[in-house]
Design brief:
Elements (H helix, E strand, L loop, with lengths): L2 E6 L2 E8 L2 E6 L9 H16 L14 H11 L7 E2 H8 L3 H9 L12 E2 L13 H10 L8
Parallel strand pairs: 4-5
Antiparallel strand pairs: 1-2, 2-3
Helix pairs in contact: 3-4
């Protein structure tokens, strides 16, 4: 599958495409493939980090269960600079918070699907990307949402 990578303030990110959709973002330098979709994804990620792009306009395909896709859809609905809790999403999906947290941790397309905008009821919660919670804080600061926490 085609993969393109770029350096960002939170480390190298790679974006993978399959069948005309973005299917994965990872924290490592993996490739320099080119396609219209990967070029758009790289441009939009650069704009997010450099200019504060607030919405990604890319076709996404979340591999996983219906529940995983529902949690990813809920995360996509959180506006730039805002946060929600695992409990908020759990209530919306009529599910317990722990599976929501697990689904957030299993997000295959972090940054673009903003799992960093989901917090625990008592603090930051976790973050499965490189750098862990420090990366989550960096992303929240970038979006101007860190004032809620720090």
């Amino acid at each position: 599958m085609p993969v393109a990578s770029l350096d960002t303030p939170i480390g190298p990110l790679s974006v993978e495409e399959r069948d005309g959709a973005i299917v994965r973002v990872g924290w490592r330098y993996e490739g320099t493939d080119r396609s219209d979709l990967l070029d758009r994804a790289m441009d939009q990620l650069r704009e997010y980090f450099q200019e504060g792009r607030e919405v990604f306009e890319l076709p996404l395909q979340v591999d996983g269960s219906d529940f995983q896709r529902a949690v990813c859809d809920a995360m996509l609905a959180i506006p730039f600079g805002e946060t929600r809790t695992y409990g908020d999403i759990a209530r919306d999906l009529s599910a317990p918070p722990q599976p929501v947290g697990n689904a957030c941790g299993g997000n295959p397309i972090p940054v673009i699907i903003p799992c960093h905008r989901v917090l625990s009821a008592t603090g930051l919660g976790g973050f499965s990307g490189m750098g862990g919670v420090e990366t989550k804080v960096s992303l929240l600061r970038h979006e101007g949402a860190a004032g809620l926490l720090i």
